[in-house]
UniProtKB/TrEMBL annotation, chain A:
One of the record's GO cellular component terms: cytosol
GO molecular function: GDP-dissociation inhibitor activity
UniProt similarity note: Belongs to the Rab GDI family.
Organism: Podospora fimiseda
BP-aspect Gene Ontology terms: small GTPase-mediated signal transduction; vesicle-mediated transport
Signal sequence interval, chain numbering: none
Name of the featured protein: Rab proteins geranylgeranyltransferase
Lineage, highest ranks first: Eukaryota, Fungi, Dikarya, Ascomycota, Pezizomycotina
TrEMBL record, chain B:
Gly residues composition-biased segments: 135-147
Matches recorded under InterPro entries: P-loop_NTPase, Small_GTP-bd, Small_GTPase
Name of the protein: Ras family-domain-containing protein
Pfam families: Ras
The entry's keywords: Nucleotide-binding
Region described as Disordered: 134-153, 204-234
Record SUPFAM superfamilies: P-loop containing nucleoside triphosphate hydrolases
Gene Ontology molecular-function annotations: GTP binding; GTPase activity
SMART domains according to UniProt: RAB, RAN, RAS, RHO
PANTHER family, per the entry: PTHR47978
Amino acid sequence: MESLSDTFWDVVISGTGLQQSLLALALSRSNKKILHIDKNDYYGHHEAALSLQEAESWVAAVQAHAKPGYSHASVTKPEGTTGLSFPRAYSLALAPQFIHARSALLQQLVSSGAYRQVEFVAVGSFFIFKPPQDASQKPTLARIPSTREDVFATTDIPAKAKRGLMKFLKFVLDYENSPQTELWQPDANIPLTEFLSKQFKMDNQLQTYITTLSLSLDGKITTKDGLTVIHRHLTSMGMYGPGFAAIYPKWGGLSEIAQVSCRAGAVGGAVYMLGNGVKTVDDYTSPIELRLHSGDIIKTRAFVEESDSIGVIGRPETTRLVAIIGSDLKALFETTIEGAPVPAVAIVAFPAGSISTADGKASEYPVYLSVHSSDTGECPKGQCVCYLTTLTPQESGPQDHLLTQALDSFLLSVSDDQVPQCLYKLSYTRSGGSDGDGERLFTIHFSLKPVTLSFDDSALENVRKAWKIVMCDEIMRDEAVDKDYMKFTDRQNAAEDDET
Amino acid sequence: MADSGNAPKPSSSVKLVLLGEAAVGKSSLVLRFVNNDFQENKEPTIGAAFLTQKCNLPTRTIKFEIWDTAGQERFASLAPMYYRNAQAALVVYDLTKPTSLIKAKHWVAELQRQASPGIVIALVGNKLDLTNDGAGSGGEGEGAGADGEGDARKVTTEEAKTYAEEEGLLFFETSAKTGYNVTEVFTAIANAIPETSLKTARGTGASHAAARSEEQRVNLNGARDPNAKEGCAC
């Protein structure tokens, strides 16, 4: 086999995170000479899904400061618990984002044909955590109604408030058009909660319902952004089947999409190497010269690097807790509409102030909990994986305690006679990340993205930009090339007799 | 072998991964199975690295989703995804090349370490057409080797078979070129997959029929008009 150094590469892609991998997918029919490497010995980088064994080495690497962007990582196995299966039975996602049905990512997976190698499960209900009125009671979960039928059926909301909520749902569905625009545009930049109270006379409870659907990590989303997200949620509802607005890739979330994309890259002839990163870059020359950890010196026209930059100063870090629960928590995964698939993901929001920190202060930011059933393939049957996320307030440390508190309260709220056991915990802090990707001539740079609960399409635009840089000659010759971005016909045999 | 399109039988998907040293004929075996086709001097695999083929058994239909390595084995960079949730593996060696059996044994060990515990593994010695026995074509291949007499066999049936028995693998000698024993391999794998794993290994795993697991999957092809204004909320 010819050596890496003998080839003049069209592009070297460093890192197999989602953006890099999607770029590999986009270039998979280009006949470019592509070398795709990752310094890790697994695929996915920031979007990886880890077995328990891998999770432990990952934690060790974070502790050794070898994973820029991450800190305060630890694994704990609560004593006296039993039932944890073998390490490979688990797949803990570093990026457990769900994907709204309207996301452009799904359109690209379909037009490129890559979706056939991914299995998707449905994201079901959204719940709000309600603390008990007094200490003798259990906390409860209230399901957020997000369709008209739902609102109609719920017993949690008084009749008068229902009318307000109905009115709001109708408004959001058509919020981009007049006369709705006149109602919200003057208030575009005030917090959504204020707008809801001002224009729709919503009480705190309803405001919380709505801000939860907006998935705002700080709970302070603006009217404009909030309406956009809620509109996306409502219009995504039912798109791929009744009763759900978002889906989740089975076996580890975005990691699976990264891997499928890399596979498409490999099928297209790209060369893949794990455990080999870029040591030094000289991109002031043409071609760009790279020295790999393996010692190989590589010449390439374009270079895509992963940035380990720590994020924007002042943007809050997030604390995350991943917990394996020894119960299937079945009640969370019920279908609410006939004919709907059984959901595998449920979301629980703990509004700001609904739980307390170690020193007794009410929580400053909401806590979000995604519960994944064994149908996600992330844990064995009879268990669940919980992903808890919250922002870390400025000047305070990681919120492990708060998240543990949230988890315990949640488990209490779903308990019958027995409180489900937590079998395993992985906690870590992630830096705030940066929205900014960049490029300099033929070097393209993908940064660590801010944590979001649902996949943010903005990452896709920069992948396309990168693709254009690599494909500039072709696009210059024929502008139509640009229009066919991510649109591929099936390779021979790939998909006959599908969907029968 | 392929679809006969009779009355609907329960149908399940089985993910099958294909492993083995370069140039042992992995893709050729699959091409023979899927297309009943053979290409002399096939280029190393790029292109059709994901193929599907149905296998009709008396009581059920198995749809194989066949994952070829797509050249990712070159730098040992196969995705964990590649093995994960695979219910079957085809480990191929070239029976004219002893080192390829050693490599095959590595793959078997790797599968036993990394793949799902219940995975069905078939060990397949390919290029039987280059030997004097079986295959019906008596060593017409140009690569028939320096041994004269057209018999290029370097790995005895006995040796590979003994190893396969020790490890609990299905074992076949095939010729992708003549088609000898190829469908037999896939039928044997289909038969060896326990019914229970069909219900549980993919999709929901609820105690209902296998068909339900397909229901659980969200089908992205079924999207409504993406420009539709209304989702469903009203």
